[in-house]
Amino acid sequence: MARPTTRPGSLSGTGAGMQYAGKDEMFALRDDPSGIETGIQPVTRVNPAADEQDNDAGTPAADFLCFSHLRWGFVHQRPQHLMERFSRHHRLFYVEEPVAADIAEPGLAVYDTTCSIKLLVPQLPRGMHGAEAEAAQTAVLDKAFRDLGITRPILWYYTPMSPQFADRLDASVVVYDCMDELSAFRGAPPELVDRERALMERADLVFTGGYSLWEVKRERHANAHPFPSSVDIPHFAQARSIPEAADQSAIPGPRLGFYGVIDERFDIGLLDAVAALRPDWQFVMLGPVVKIDPDHLPRRPNIHYPGMRGYAELPAWLAGWDVALMPFALNDSTRFISPTKTPEYLAAGCPVVSTPIADVIRHYGDSGVVRIADTPDAFVEACEWALSVDRSSPDWLAAIDRTLADMSWDQTWSRMKGLIECVR
Predict the structure, then answer these.
(1) What is the fold of 11-230+411-423?
(2) Measured distance CA(271)–CA(282) in Å, rounded
(3) Neighbouring C-beta atoms of residue 399, cutoff 10 Å
(4) Which of 7, 104, 261, 338 is most exposed, with the fewest beta carbons within 10 Å of its own?
(5) Whole-angstrom Cα distance, residue 107 to residue 121?
(6) 214 phi and psi, to 5 degrees?
(7) Is the pLDDT of residue 36 over 60?
(8) Cα dihedral angle (94, 232, 311, 33), rounded to 10 degrees?
């Protein structure tokens, strides 16, 4: 199939030099972001072979369309874990939000991933916004879905801001996987609340990223189910036995670390105060800085910002940490979060210190492997406890493994898959 970049509605290649991975703000139409994930190349064929989807359920596998505000090649998190598993059973397309490009007419870039998933990225001429941009995006995707022969797909939404295709494609199932209360995030468009209401009215199933969020959404949907953060235990358990990352070895100990997106959910005041109280401790803040001014981050000799690292590199960094931190601010954007990093830190064998996030308290407050603290002094005290933990102790590791016993992504995916089959 020919895929010229500028033909409206075409399944296009990327053109030389186009890159994308993560965008530095949610919601807004952005220029092509940089930092393509290793292994992703422009697509060379559109239709996966029939034998690439292992359909062992006895029911014909439906096509699967996932609409997300999160770039596939950015932080490896819930969408990647779940979609990789669904792609073993379905022809799966991951539809990202549009990017602005130097093109005359709207088009579509298609990318291969390191699994069988295809990424569909609408491209819009620079300066196109609002209703015009949404209409163009919808037209481009409409044509792509026709060209791909997609009928009665499973539609999976991570954002209500994506175009709604449930009726246009006669969807077999519509799922809204609500990871966060997006309307509380910085930069959220004012129409998001109404768009979410419309999506929930059309959805057959609503999943939430935690129990606090489920308690809200279940009042608005009769078939809502909580699915708190899960963990790839074998991946992160590598940190218990592998050498630490070489580019961390120059930082002295003890090391107290955080990885993830550093944004409005991060309590920079708490980090600054704790680092001032314990100048002999080293604080390693690993991850991209988004939606906040990097100049506002605390700068002390014992605070380190190594930048973003890939998912595969995280166990080696965790191997060199004495304590894993979750210094989240208590504000609207963290009210309903269920941090994925909690079970990931624990799988690595690290003791965890967190601010009082509701779902962390609910799931881990009495576990004996996580401490909760709400002031700088209390945070220091909790970190002192964590530094006293023998990470290699069989009793300590057994306590962690008991805590994580039913939290694998395979179990979460299997339960979700079962619910989908019930409504198909």
Answers:
(1) Rossmann fold (3.40.50)
(2) 11
(3) 15
(4) 104
(5) 9
(6) -60, -40
(7) no
(8) 20
Rounded to whole angstroms, how far apart are CA atoms 248 and 86? 36
Helical (H) or strand (E) element with 384: helix 376-387
Q: What is the CATH number of domain 233-403?
A: 3.40.50.2000
**CATH topology of 11-230+411-423 equal to that of 233-403?**
yes
Whole-angstrom distance, CA of residue 269 vs CA of residue 253: 22
94: which residues sit within 8 A by CB, 6+ positions away?
66, 68, 72, 79, 83, 113, 117, 118, 119, 120
Q: Kindly list the domain boundaries of the chain, sorted by start residue.
A: 11-230+411-423, 233-403
pTM, 2 dp: 0.81
Q: Mean of the pLDDT values across residues 123-130?
A: 93
Residue 114 has a pLDDT of 81
Position of tokens 């291969």? 112
The residue whose two tokens read 């189910």 is 225
* Percent of the chain scoring above 70 in pLDDT: 84
Task: Give 63-114 as a DSSP string.
Answer: PEEEEESS-TTSS--HHHHHHHHHTTTS-EEEEEPPEEES-SS-EEEEEE-S
Please say whether the dihedral angle defined by the alpha carbons of residues 80, 81, 82 and 85, taken in this order, is positive or negative. positive
Question: Cα–Cα distance between 202 and 182 in angstroms, integer?
Answer: 19
Instruction: Please tell me the distance from the alpha carbon of residue 236 to that of residue 238, in angstroms, as a whole number.
Output: 5
State how far the Cα of 163 lies from the Cα of 62, in Å rounded to an integer: 20
The residue to which tokens 């964590």 are assigned: 386
pLDDT-based confidence at residue 19 (cuts at 50, 70, 90):
very low
Q: Which two tokens stand for residue 115?
A: 């699994």
424 falls in which pLDDT band (50, 70, 90)?
confident
